[in-house]
Amino acid sequence: MKTDICRIIENTDRDIAITQRLERMQDQLSYIVKDTETSKHTLTARLEALPSSISEKLQGKLTGVFHLFQNIKLFRRS
């Protein structure tokens, strides 16, 4: 009986620790998403101020760089 209670307590403690880690990871991902959206809007606003031919070329290149940056950030976090 006592060992069953000890196991339940250990499992509960483990579940709490896992839940807390998952909550921290969710908070980090939320921050990354917000930061990414802010960066995206800032870049878009700056690109719109450029002449259209330059803007289109830069936008294509920056989009590729931006996706690469996102992948690097996500890779480092995992």
From TrEMBL:
This is Uncharacterized protein.
